Amino acid sequence: MSRLKGWKEIPIGGLILEAGNAEEYQTGTWRTYRPVWDEGKCIHCLFCWIYCPDSAIIVEGGKMKGIDLKHCKGCGICDQECPPKVKAIEMVLESKLQSEKGE
Amino acid sequence: MGKIVALTGNDAAGTAMIQIRPDVVAAFPITPQTELMHKFAEAVADGDVDTEFVSVESEHSAMSAAIGASAAGARVMTATAANGFALMWEVVYIAASYRLPIVMTLVNRALSGPINIHCDHSDSMGGRDAGWIQLHSENSQEVYDNLIQGVKIAENRDVLLPVMVTSDGFILSHTLERMEILDNQGVQDFVGENHPQHTLLDVDHPITFGPLDLPDYYFEHKRQQVLAMEKAKGVILEVGREFKKLSGRDYWLFEEYQMEGAERAIVALGSTAGTVKETVDALREKGEKVGLIKLRVFRPFPKEELVEALKGIKALVVLDRSNSFGGFGGPLFTEIRSTLYGSGLSFEVLNYIYGLGGRNISLKEIEGVYSDLKEVIETSKVKERINYLGVRE
Ligand code: SF4
Ligand code: SF4
């Protein structure tokens, strides 16, 4: 986590002076479950992109490219909305993934 | 040059607003403030001022509209009293937290219940911790002068806090007094134009007002408000000096009245200071060493300056026109006594709570307070620390 600023370093009154800076706030750390995407199964219908409340589905050239894990909060909506016949997204416990990776 | 006129406190405040010509005024009527807005709304209707007047359905909405307009970059004023102020409560804090320089007249009136429309300070003291600067007024002249100075204090870049100017309900608001009003141009030049640094309407620099402020940053924003209050003290004095050039009248954090060589002193807020001055004059003629500190600026509280002014006295009474039930005396008393503790000064400090719900305070009663102080000095004993002046047994 980046260093939090002191009271002399921030704008007064809770003002946010740069538009669109919510991107800097990395909500990925809130996640309990991580969506794991199987590229091989994906049919690029982009339902997940439409429904993701955090704009965390990365799309390039009209194709699903992956998940922005710095911002994905792990709500599982993409998993829910991915067509049942496809099931290209699986929610896996973050702690399990991290211990497997030795994180 | 100024003009000598006879005005009520409400008309004095209304006149100040007409001369300041704020961009936006949002208000709701409540006794004893109603005539103030009546006067101002009339000027708007007659086309004498080009203010956008927003008549709202409640005081909560009045302050909310004031906040919106101020965030949009407008110079905004409003006025209220007692329960109207209480209804604003939630947004009163927000105005200060967003650092919006709104200026409001608070016509002091007792908070219900039982329902009462007369003067006491329970309303302004209720807003004590809201983060607003508080300028208290002894008479209509001071209501008028404080409002004009208030705009400049609030908008100062080092301050950016809302300012509340008090006016004792009925005692000032509905009483005709001789006073001087400045000419329109003089007031306009004094307050100048409002050039806020960040506004919602500045589309080239889009910003966000009022986002969620969680445990990671809220405390830092509160610390900034402390600094703004500290800086306000110097700004209030600076604006006072500038105002003197325009009006010839002196403004300070508090007025020291006959404090030279005083052994017994009273600290008071508002119109009662005038009554105390009369008593002081009468007692001084008899050779009694009595004096008065009339506090003008209650927020920011002038602690160091008060300690300096109280050096040399032998006993002190703090008059409170409100109470903190279950606390140790009225709000002014607790603050003054806390200021003195550890200051190196050691004399007895007594509290007299008076005038609740508009109960009159007489010269005789104030004389009695000074003679009680004499007894405290002579006997080195305090019979009652917290006293209720003028209540029937
Ligand atoms: S889990 Fe939720 S936040 Fe994360 S990518 Fe899926 S829909 Fe978006
Ligand atoms: S909803 Fe499923 S199939 Fe459709 S784009 Fe997203 S991951 Fe691929």
Textual characterization of the structure:
The complex is a heterodimer of chains A (103) and B (393). By secondary structure, chain A is α+β, with helices and mostly antiparallel strands. In chain A, the strands form 2 sheets. Chain A has a two-stranded antiparallel ribbon. Chain A has a two-stranded antiparallel ribbon with strand order 2-3. Chain A has helices at residues 47-51, 77-81, 94-101, and strands at 33-37, 57-60, 63-67, 89-93. Chain A has a single domain (27-101), classed as Alpha-Beta Plaits. With 393 residues, chain B is of the alpha/beta class. The model of chain B has no long low-confidence stretch (mean pLDDT 97). In chain B, strand 13 (315-320), helix 11 (331-340) and strand 14 (348-354) form a beta-alpha-beta unit. The chains are: A alpha+beta (103), B alpha/beta (393). Chains A and B meet through loops of A and helix 8 of B. Bound molecules: iron/sulfur cluster (SF4) (2 copies). The site of one iron/sulfur cluster has 14 residues of chain A, from helix 1.
Helix content of chain B: 40-55%
Estimate the strand proportion of chain A.
15-25%
Helix fraction bin of chain A? 10-25%
Report on the biggest sheet of chain A. 2 strands, antiparallel
Shape of chain B: globular
Descriptive tags:
heterodimer, A: 103 residues, alpha+beta, Alpha-Beta Plaits, two-stranded antiparallel sheet, 3 helices, globular, B: 393 residues, alpha/beta, Rossmann fold, 2 domains, 7-stranded mixed beta sheet, 6-stranded mixed beta sheet, 12 helices, 41% helix, binds iron/sulfur cluster
